Amino acid sequence: QNEEKWDFVLVSDIHEMGSEKEIKRKKFLDELSKKGFTIKKIEDTKLFYGVRAPQHIFWKYQCLLRNPNSRQRDSAAYQDVPVTTRIRVVHFILQNTVTSDLEKLHDLMKKKVFEAAFPLHKKEQITEILKKKWARWRVLFNEQPIEEIRCYFGEKVALYFAWLGWYTYLLIFAALAGLATIAAGATVFSSSQVSKEICDANNTIMCPLCDQNCSFWVLSDTCTYAKVTHMIDNEATVVFAIFMAIWATVFLELWKRERATVATSWDLYGWDEEEEELALQLINNSQHEPRPYQHSYFRSTIVLILAVLMIMVLIGIAHALVIYRAVAMALFTQSEVNLLSKHADTIAVMTGAVLHYITIIIMTKVRSHQGCLARFLQGQPPLLIKPRTFSQRENNFTVKIFIFQFFTNFSSLIYIAFFLGRINGHPGHYVRIAGHWRLEECHPSGCITDLFIQMAVIMLLKQTISNIMEYLIPWISHQLRKKKKPPKKRSVMLGEEEEAEDPCKRQWLKNYELNEVNVFSLFNEYLEIVIQYSFTTIFVAAFPLAPLLALINNVIEIHMDAIKMMRLRRRMVPRKAKDIGIWLQVLEAIGTLAVIGNGLVIAITSDFIPVQVYKYMYSPCTRGNRTGMDCSTGYINNSLSVFHIRDFEPHTKVLPEFNGVQIKEYRDYRNADDYTYTIQFWHVFAARLAFLILFEHVALCVKLIAAWYIPDVPQKVKNQILMEKHNNLRNGLRWVEPWKV
């Protein structure tokens, strides 16, 4: 049975005898044979070559990477290597075997000499366990079999699922805090003094929302919108923002402890990736010389220029979305359809959010091509210095693509949070796009609801449509590949015996029909969750339901990824790792951005600061009239400025409603005569700045205290490592003792 255990399968089209492709294929297989590989050929509609490495390769691997304190010479010391290690070693040798034409496997695959190379999903006990306990929808809320995942897919994949499971578990607390914030807001849904004033403002006439054929409107028309705004924008939001800053830190610190425990239990704490890669290079070629460390300022300059260009493109896309919202607002407001004209601002925000989601999808496709470009540039030593190790290459790739995706996802949100309604000018002197369409304004209740809608639409679409497509596309692709298989030819001639089918043939065909995977397949899974983590933390003050949506998504995501890996995709090449790599630094950077982002949302986007300034400086309470009065009484009237109709721009055409009144109002702190800023504007501005500095310093201090308070490595793990070192030294001393004088 041993001869039927194959480490890898190579797939090739059937080429003509003597053709260039057939000669190149033969040269590559001959090189493998010289290294002692056993090769088995099966012919179907394609040529399949089973590859099995000789045992001495794995003995070398064990000898080179065994703990130097325990290097025994007896053959009993060589144990059977795990299947994951076999696959990893064989994959490395296949990728680095050079033919007489100086071509490697990836060169031959580019030239269509080989079509595919993959390890096999085999029908084993561990496969059945994973399919039963993990890769099915029925076990949605069961604990993940991390140890079995590690034994089948390797440590890197197991650590991804361990991290995702840990993140999902801690999201429960963030989701409960978000629900509590919404519940606290719901209690003031109808009782908020600010909302009441808007609902009762039947005589407060506001300036038109567009320049042509728009009428004046009454502030009380926006009563429901105001209630929703103040359900999100209240004192509980500030507490929730600080809680989420602490939560992000605690999550990462607790993960570091969990990772240390897992790495120690898997005997990976002292493992070094660079040492392993050097060992594999020497096993493949004993004459191998290591590449020295290099740094190229030219390469860094090229990367920086490309990054700046991509960010400028993304800012341009965000600008296009701003133009769309301004034009849509003008068109919807002038529409004859009552629903569109009445809810023009909300519809413009929602359609803008959908358009933003579509740009995210398009730019994600562009990103996949950009990834190909990045991998191409990294593979060209004459132009750019190639990273020394796969890990270094992956880290470089991760940083570039994450920055690209981050700006793609957040450019529009940044505009809504910090610029919408603040750069649009004022009646009589509006800022216009191309001198025609004026920029949209914030709702009288504030811009935070616009941010809430934008985040809600994007997160819901990403977690429904994107996830459905993420599962359906591989499933449909797998079904189509299965249907391409031609029917078996069976002899109908009487008395002719049918040749027995090779038992490997069915297994290899079944694996070939699965969808292709590559070394960056896991990268895409990480990127998806880290972007979601950004949504869950950075602007969470505006959307407290983000952790709940992330929690629901992750419970489904874990098992969807499991099903894809076990049932729809070829087996991923197992890789060793002792942590989640550069993603940890990315998550820490997001944690810092979350403190800054939420501080800015509360200070700038929210109405929290203007209300507090009014309460303590301008309200009736400051004059001693505190008996039973809400100190925010009169805030709405105080936050509106007066505008004279005669000062409208010449081309403005207003419908003839409320024509008898010559003074209308708008949301700002400006003088009625010359429209300059009032002293209250500067008081609010100073308070916003002071709050931002205070919030960020307090939140960052709390983060630092939490990081200090929770040790990265549990004492139990430290003591375990200490005892292992002590025992190794004691064993070494026993070897020295007989030689002492």
Outline the secondary-structure elements:
Layout: E1 8-12, H1 20-34, E2 38-43, E3 47-52, H2 55-65, H3 83-96, H4 105-110, E4 116-118, H5 125-133, H6 146-153, H7 155-187, H8 193-200, E5 205-206, E6 212-214, E7 217-218, H9 223-232, H10 235-265, H11 273-284, H12 297-333, H13 338-342, H14 344-378, H15 390-418, E8 425-426, E9 429-430, E10 432-433, E11 437-438, H16 448-483, H17 503-512, H18 521-537, H19 546-568, H20 583-605, H21 608-618, H22 635-638, E12 640-644, E13 653-654, E14 663-667, H23 679-709, H24 715-736
Parallel strand pairs: 6-13
Antiparallel strand pairs: 1-3, 1-4, 2-3, 5-7, 8-9, 10-11, 12-14
Largest sheet: 4 strands, antiparallel
Strand content: 5-15%
Kindly name the structural category. alpha+beta
Model regions low in confidence, pLDDT < 50 over at least 5 residues: 67-78, 373-383, 487-499
What is the gyration radius calculated from CA atoms? 32 Å
Strand order of the largest sheet: 2-3-1-4
The count of DSSP E runs of length 2 or more, i.e. the number of strands, is: 14
What share of the residues lie within helices?
55-70%
The coarse silhouette is: elongated
- First-residue to last-residue Cα separation: 55 Å
On the 0-100 scale, what is the average pLDDT?
83
DSSP summary: helix tally: 24
Keywords: Cell membrane, Glycoprotein, Membrane, Transmembrane, Transmembrane helix
GO molecular function: chloride channel activity; protein dimerization activity
Family: Belongs to the anoctamin family.
Organism: Brachypodius melanocephalos
